[in-house]
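[Structure tokenization] protein backbone as discrete codes

[Encoding] learned vocabulary of local backbone shapes

[Begin record] amino acids and matching fold tokens:

___
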Amino acid sequence: MATFNVENLFSRARAINDPDPARNKQILADLAELNRLIAKTSYSAADKAAMKEILERNQVTKRSIRPFFVSEVRGRLFKNSAASGIEITAAGRRSWEGFIDSERQPLDRDAIRNTGDVIRKVNADAWTLIEVESRPTLLEFNRQFVNNGYDHAMLIDGNDPRGIDVAMLGRLPVGNMRSHVDDKDGGKNIFSRDCPELELITPSGKSLWLVSNHLLSKFGGDTPAKKVRRKLQATRVRDIVLANFNLSTDLVVVAGDFNDIPDSDPLQPLLTLTGLHDVLDKLPSGTPRFTFRSPKNQIDYMLVSTPLFALLTHVEIERHDMTTPGFDRARLASDHAAIVADFNV
């Protein structure tokens, strides 16, 4: 088994791929504010002025540089002229139909190839892959860059509009599936992506349940609100596991990018769950456990149930090129390492 945040396979939303962290933060803030404004029943003069400012700041009319765009299906949100620039023409949300979408930026070809090399080299029977664009994209990536006898791929579209979903790739067929994309708290989605439960059928016929997740990122600053939501997500994952599995008898893997370190408060509901064990605890004493390039911390995890932990024969962190001094980040397979564990099932 292995888990790896690939940071997209072929392309990445331009809104999260700007090399300037400050600019990235501004773009995400603008996206959130624009989505809030366009949802209003009626647009005041102040609303229109704010939308105009956001659209002009992000050059939504210039395709070559815009990080996101307005897709107008029926009616118009705005018009643009050389004389007056952008003018918000819609009176409110009911006077036009459309949505905000992100431009996508192709990844460096070497980075795509390097990602495939990592997956092919590790040769795990089943992967949890984080930040995958879509199932068709995963199938095409597997065909072009892996081709490792992986006949099974599954991805359920999640809640992130930028196309960073949780996927499974490998040799083990999928039996039953459960999605939690619609789990709510106070009317709002709990999970940033999804928390799919996939039943993988081992060669011996045993069921191995894979519960994958990509908890809320710290990108743009780890605010108190983000910590609260990440803890809510970790708590919900814990509750899902407790409701559906017996950690003393079932083969269960809880894996993915949890976006926080082992002693963080948001992860404690999940990391302290009796019957779940971090496979990295089996690393030799003193072995570095970081799974992220900068800063070097563990934010990726593979937690397994007690019977599976007893069958663990080997664990390692595959860091590929991420520790090479001066390595070109654009060509890096990912800023994340892959966690790899062998089980005698």
Remarks:
- The CA atoms of residues 74 and 97 lie 5 Å apart.
- The domain at 2-11+107-343 is CATH 3.60.10.10 (Deoxyribonuclease I; Chain A).
- The two ends are 11 Å apart (CA to CA).
- The chain has a mean pLDDT of 89.
